[in-house]
Design goal:
The complex is a heterodimer of chains A (293) and B (282). With 293 residues, chain A is mainly alpha-helical. Helices cover 74% and strands 0% of the residues of chain A. Chain A starts with a helix and ends with a helix. Chain B has 282 residues and is mostly helical. Chain B is built from 14 helices and no strands. The chains are: A mainly alpha (293), B mainly alpha (282). Chain A: It comes from Paenibacillus hexagrammi.
């Protein structure tokens, strides 16, 4: 490699890299350090002591930590499955030939671009017991006989946040699957028809297998981005009622900024990061096999 | 699109109707937000709320335009300052980085790309506390700089990844001929490559803008002065001290979604292509 090329690549790449090192790299390192000390609101200005892995050990006996981990996992898996199925059905519909296809498909994107704060409040209102339109619709269709306590009852609140997040995530799934569908050559289907394949055969024998790479990376990305959910929960339920929707991220935030146990909050955030990092590594391995690098 | 035969036309009509119905059902929450913002308080809590606003009132909008600390106009301006600054910082840093990673061979290239990819996947709760302490030491808590700097950490890696694929897709011959005409690496980049990459740059910039526009947690954590809060933090705080006056909250919501709708109308097709190229979700 020529020396000038190395010089230029540094000049181009380093400013962004240095920025991220200061604003992301250093904080990540600090968070790790924080989790090995016992920093709280009392000693933050003084001299906190090094306590090694005690914070991590304490988490093992913390019921809310386990509850939040379980919740995060359930929430992530259910959101991904629902978004994926609905996104797939819509993608199949919108990849048909009709005049409004592109326009309407684009319109659906709005739900993905909106500030999550606004989406969260919108759903909070629709799910509410007083004047909530969702119960009104369900009752007028005779699907339920009395108003459902969506956000007040611990056994329903998880569904409420999952439904809201599914609404946000559907367009992303739809767009990526639609793009995948357009890459499948038409003549594959035609020759299958000649061989006597029906619609079901075509879907399971051609569409799904050919979409597999796109689907895998869609699901892994979906996992990564859903697992770190924060804003939506803070707005709709704030983790309640009685921790029914507490997630790792909201639990970490509460420890740090409500109870001011900064080290304990940092510890939970690090566990969240380790899980995401392992999944990301899997994803990177996957995409680097295909092209990206 | 042209539909010639009779069956084709019928097919088209049926699919249009089905798709239209589904889209309407899907976008109902947005409609409901607008309707609620126009209803008087009493109509909102009726036993059977009406699907159309029977008595339209604009008070939810007008009363909040001139309120004391937390008014819509003020919050809107704050959001604009934060989002535009974030967009500028993120784009200015990301463009050259993306170009560098697309065009030059360096021994660290793979590692750098990996770093940008991983940064996109970080949970905000991981860097929130340390950033809070860092900003406190830098004395920029309670200034717009704090959320701007934090929001750019999401925009930069995202922009680098979309723009890199964009630069790779541009023909290399353009650069070679510019070099022959006497351009050096910088002038080739500025005068030849950057202008052609404008569609990619627009998508990257818009995403950085939208991330910052939608951010709640950085603004809430780093800014404690009500008069400096952006729209998202403004609406959130409304929940706390107003009881729940849904028409006011929804009016705030409608106003904060306006830029999203506008951006969407103008560059819809770029967004879709940018999304599929970058394949990343915030």
């Amino acid at each position: 490699m020529r020396l000038s090329e190395r010089f230029y690549s540094n000049v181009f790449i380093l400013p962004a890299l240095i920025y991220l090192l200061i604003m992301v790299g250093y904080p990540m390192f600090e968070n790790l350090r924080l989790s090995l000390y016992n920093v709280d609101v009392m000693n933050i200005a003084g001299t906190p002591s090094f306590i090694g892995l005690s914070n991590y050990r304490a988490l093992l006996h913390d019921d809310i930590f386990w509850k939040s981990t379980y919740n995060t996992l359930i929430y992530t898996v259910l959101c991904i499955v629902l978004q994926f199925i609905i996104g797939f059905v819509l993608a199949l519909l919108f990849s048909q030939k009709f005049s409004l296809a592109e326009r309407l498909r684009g319109l659906v994107m709005i739900s993905w671009l909106m500030p999550i704060t606004v989406t969260g409040l919108m759903f909070k209102f629709m799910f509410s017991l007083n004047g909530g339109i969702l119960n009104e619709i369900l009752m007028s269709l005779h699907l339920v006989h009395q108003p459902v306590e969506w956000l007040v009852n611990p056994s329903n609140s998880m569904w409420a946040v999952i439904i809201a997040n599914t609404w946000i995530g559907v367009p992303f799934n739809m767009i990526l699957i639609t793009t995948g569908l357009t890459t499948i050559p038409k003549d594959v289907y035609e020759s299958a028809s000649i061989d006597g394949a029906n619609a079901m055969d075509k879907f399971f024998r051609i569409t799904l297998p050919l979409l597999k790479p796109a689907i895998t990376s869609l699901l892994v990305l979906g996992f990564i981005y859903t697992f770190k959910v924060f804003d939506l929960i803070v707005i709709m339920t704030n983790g309640g009622p009685v921790n029914a929707t507490e997630m790792m991220s909201t639990f970490s935030y509460k420890l740090s900024f409500v109870e001011y146990k900064f080290s304990e909050g940092a510890t939970v955030a690090n566990v969240l990061f380790i899980i995401l990092f392992l999944v990301s590594l899997g994803y990177l391995k996957l995409v680097s096999k295909e092209e990206v690098m | 699109m042209q539909f010639h035969t009779k069956t084709e036309r019928r097919h088209n009509r049926v699919l249009n109707t089905v798709a239209l119905l589904i889209t309407c059902a899907f976008l109902f929450p947005l409609y409901w937000m607008v309707v609620t913002s126009l209803k008087p308080e009493a109509d909102i809590f009726l036993a059977h709320p009406s699907y159309f606003p029977e008595h339209i009132q604009w008070a939810s909008y007008t009363s909040q335009l001139i309120g004391a600390n937390n008014n819509i106009l003020h919050s809107f301006v704050n959001s604009a300052i934060i989002s535009v600054s974030t967009m500028v910082i993120a784009t200015v840093l990301a463009i050259p980085a993306a170009y560098g990673l697309a065009r030059f061979q360096t021994p660290w290239k793979k590692l750098f790309i990996l770093l940008f990819l991983v940064t996109q996947m970080l949970p905000s709760s991981l860097i929130l506390t340390p950033l809070f302490i860092e900003f406190k030491n830098l004395h920029i808590l309670n200034t717009f700089w704090a959320p701007i700097f934090a929001d750019a950490t999401i925009g930069i890696p995202f922009s680098v990844m979309i723009l890199r694929t964009y630069f790779i897709s541009l023909p290399k011959e353009l650069e070679d001929s510019a070099k022959i005409d006497g351009c050096n690496t910088f002038t080739t980049f500025l005068r030849i490559m950057l202008p052609i990459a404008i569609p990619g740059v627009v998508v990257a910039a818009v995403f950085s803008f939208l991330y910052a526009w939608g951010d709640l947690i950085y603004a809430l954590t780093f800014i404690s002065k009500p008069e400096m809060r952006p729209v998202t933090a403004g609406i959130y705080n409304f929940l706390g001290y107003q009881g729940i006056s849904w028409n006011n909250i929804m009016a705030f919501g409608v106003v904060s979604v306006l830029p999203v709708i506008l951006i969407f109308i103008f560059i819809q097709k770029y967004i879709v292509s940018g999304l599929t190229n970058g394949a990343v979700k915030g």
